[in-house]
């Protein structure tokens, strides 16, 4: 007999995959396979990169690789409950992998990704497919395939640390279940040796009665004690499993690249980590426990029933095939329905996540009714999906109850016939009916758990969709130490694409340590993308970025970003105190260090004017502070970590002239002795830059100091002249609309 299928991908394979990546090679998609060439369960992994197909062969423990080439194809097929993925070139089949149909939905997406990469390698235009499923903006259609309940077995990865407690809980459960089965068994001697003889004129034996009643009381107390201990212990374990699941999901989410978050809605991710893990916790602490208890009760009751009378026991099992058929009938509908409900609920959360943080904009444009309508529509869709599901469920539950009642009637009929033929006693039938009541009760309970199991499976699938995602910006397997950074940056042959759209093309640029470089160009010229690549929010498609001669892909991401200070156009402040926000990049900073950074950022004076100074609370996203105040706090935050490389992204574009002067003085302190890369549409703010990099359509078209570029009268000069004319025009318009007091008086 084969082993059970593995349900988790071991970490060594993921680490080994990252170690096999070449310079400039990015993972596009991964596919888990769970069968070897003989059809036995074994774990494997297929990874698609921008240049190769890498496969960890299941059952062999070795890697194979295939370079992407024009004419290749990846085909999916299934036969006899198994799925096959085959790689072909123009002449022959190159490889074949097997897996169960549970892996098929992700395999469909993997094949689509492979087709797009082959099109790209072949030089054809790549047709981007709109992403389906939970990432659609407001799509409540059918999912590619309902989530399998096997996904719940993947939770064992989080249950493994508590296997000792789980084993003890199972032992307690076994004892408690056995104790509950004592009471019906004792009803046989109570009926046959006490009550029926008494009706026939015999005296009652007090000792026997006390013994039997004492046995009933003892069994009840023993069952209660074991049941309490079992429930308490397993509830504690299930809460810890759910907490570990939440933590692991959030930590994994933080490790993913910005590209992942660009395709996701905030409310949907919040829903997954919050409500889905809570649903799994409830399933583990209550319903899974009840299910195991039900299985034990059914098994032990069946053994007792067959030991009492095999014929009568067979009559008890008459409803089972019909109940099993009903469960099979509604299971897929429930799975699909609960996944729809999850997606609809994610949209409700999305509306809340959009509206509440943006409430100022909602009120400013008087769009309260519009947002209320969005919420009402999402809520109505949630109601409709639940109504359809409840229609199925409402028919299923009474049907199971009806079948169990019919089974009880069959047992009564067979039992009366057996008594009439002196085959069993009344006490035996009484005990049988007591056991059957428990048997059918547990059977009904097990049928009801189909619903909560499918809910938990749908939630687990959405959680593992996050955990299975591999970051496009991976840490190297053997990271290179990165200390004593001077800030020399070298970009050679840089290319970067968003999907099929080329954004950066063959860019070469060297930045000296301590140099200030300004990036200028029209919107969409690639300035922000270049900064994102330097920060390694994305990895380059081709070429390399080196800092102090070390390729960024050879450095651990966290080690590298500790040396980067980032000041954004729209500074983001967290809910907390002023001091906590300044010390965000260095949580162990002393108060003196915080104050020193605030002074250098010209923020100390306005902070002291706040009610509680540095301990004043900042509202969510910096509510309660002006734009200039928020910006100076973000500059202090960057100063505190003392970065070797400084990124300024439109740091003064959203403030008035006086505030800009204050921020500029703070920036002058910030850029001293640091390699600085500044983006600005207002070209006058970059006159202090050592060099200006003029970009157009992802390429560097000019490079040099301000005066030299003006003298060339090229791209930069045209940008400068356009801004100068716009400023002059704005001044003329301001003068034209200024009231003339003398004219006003004359008219009067």
TrEMBL record:
Q: What subcellular locations does the record give?
A: Cell membrane
Write out the GO MF terms.
ATP binding
Q: Which UniProt keywords apply?
A: ATP-binding, Cell membrane, Membrane, Nucleotide-binding, Transmembrane, Transmembrane helix
Q: Which residues form the ABC transporter domain?
A: 489-722
> Keyword Transmembrane: yes or no?
yes
Q: Which SMART domains match?
A: AAA
Which intervals hold domain ABC transmembrane type-1? 167-455
TM stretches of this protein = 166-187, 207-229, 280-306, 312-330, 395-418, 424-441
Annotated membrane topology? Multi-pass membrane protein
Q: Which Pfam families match?
A: ABC_membrane (PF00664), ABC_tran (PF00005)
- Quick one: signal sequence residues? none
Q: What is its main location?
A: membrane
Protein name (Swiss-Prot/TrEMBL)? ATP-binding cassette subfamily B protein
Source organism per entry reads Roseateles saccharophilus (Pseudomonas saccharophila)
Q: Lineage in the entry?
A: Bacteria, Pseudomonadati, Pseudomonadota, Betaproteobacteria, Burkholderiales
